[in-house]
Write a structure and sequence with these properties.
Length: 343
């Protein structure tokens, strides 16, 4: 069984010093009996970890799992988990009790299933997930979930929510609920350190990829597309709650304020790179960027601009929209400060 001290020492070696609440979570994770138990014991079949964005939920659970044999567990982001379940249900459509078949596929030889960033927003998912989680723990496989919301706040105002709650409540009878609180958002702390260091003035795509992968434990090796309001746009990365776009290519596309509002609501972190000095020949790009900044500023979105050798006042060198650009410059400067991130 993993020892909490090993996990804490490993985290410290990576430059992360767990606080009191994070250490409590590590200890709680280590108390999960990783052996299959076919006789359900109350509150011994898993853990539901919830709390604000950036408190370290995913990092700590992954640190715990890294101490296990890789064959003993399966790890999913919630979106990938539901995609897997729907694909399996389609494959076994027409068979008797296809959800039971999916459950057997998930739990075969696995002691733990981890579902990261658990959320329920779709009625089809809501009708499936509660029943599936019940079946998984009845087969003796433990479940670890992380979420930004308390389980009783999931799927708020959703269609047929009572049916979902009936199923999820039975599941919750057999697992512990842990709220991870804390003042420090470690991702924000790590990223904001970059602002004032001269050595961090220039960021290549490789360096940005490393920054994202180290802080958010995601694979950034492939370029991506983002679907916004039923239209596809090019970007560097759109995964889970992270968006990475390029100034010159993204704002050259026919995006609008409606699209920027979607982005501000969908993504917890936004990264923008590949800035150029724009004049009135690129005025449409600048206008879109100004509109984008207005919306994410009001939303208080967490955003990092990789300007490299370009100063904020140099992004726009034209004169036709000077009045708009002056306000935008002010907001861009504020959005790089500690006060903006932590206010």
């Amino acid at each position: 069984m993993p020892k909490a001290k090993n996990i804490i020492d490993n985290l410290k070696n990576q430059g992360a010093n767990p606080n009191f609440n994070q250490i409590n979570l590590i200890n709680t994770l280590c108390e999960i009996n990783s052996y299959k138990n076919f006789f359900l014991k109350n509150k011994n079949m898993g853990l539901y970890v919830w709390g604000d964005v950036g408190r370290g939920k995913t990092l700590l659970v992954n640190s715990y799992l890294s101490q296990l044999k890789s064959d003993d567990y399966m790890s999913f982001h919630f979106i990938d988990f539901m995609n897997f379940v729907h694909e399996e249900l389609n494959t076994h459509s027409g068979k008797k009790n296809p959800l039971h078949i999916v459950c057997k596929s998930l739990t075969y030889s696995k002691k733990i299933i981890f579902i990261d960033e658990f959320q329920v927003e779709d009625v089809a998912d809501a009708m499936i997930i509660g029943e599936l989680l019940k079946k998984i723990i009845k087969r003796g496989t433990k479940v670890i979930l992380t979420s930004n919301a308390h389980p009783m706040n999931l799927y708020k105002d959703g269609l047929q929510r009572k049916k979902f709650l009936d199923s999820i409540n039975i599941f919750l009878e057999y697992i512990n609920i842990f709220e991870l609180t804390g003042e420090i958002d470690y991702r924000t702390r790590n990223i904001i350190k970059l602002i004032d260091k001269p050595s961090n003035k220039n960021f290549s795509d490789k360096k940005i990829s490393k920054l994202i992968s180290e802080n958010f434990t995601v694979n950034t090796s492939e370029s991506s597309k983002i679907t916004i309001n039923d239209r596809k746009f090019s970007c560097k990365l759109a995964l889970n709650n992270i968006l990475w776009i390029e100034y010159i290519s993204f704002f050259d596309q026919p995006t609008s304020s409606k699209d920027y509002k979607y982005i501000s609501e969908k993504f917890d972190w936004i990264f923008i790179s590949n800035f150029i000095v724009s004049n009135d020949d690129q005025i449409d790009i600048v206008r879109r960027f100004i509109s984008f900044v207005d919306i994410v500023y009001k939303k208080k979105s967490k955003i990092k601009f990789f300007l490299n050798n370009i100063e904020i006042n140099e992004i726009y060198s034209g004169s036709k929209i000077d009045n708009l650009w002056v306000r935008c410059q002010s907001r861009l400067r504020e959005m790089q400060t500690n006060e903006y991130f932590f206010d």
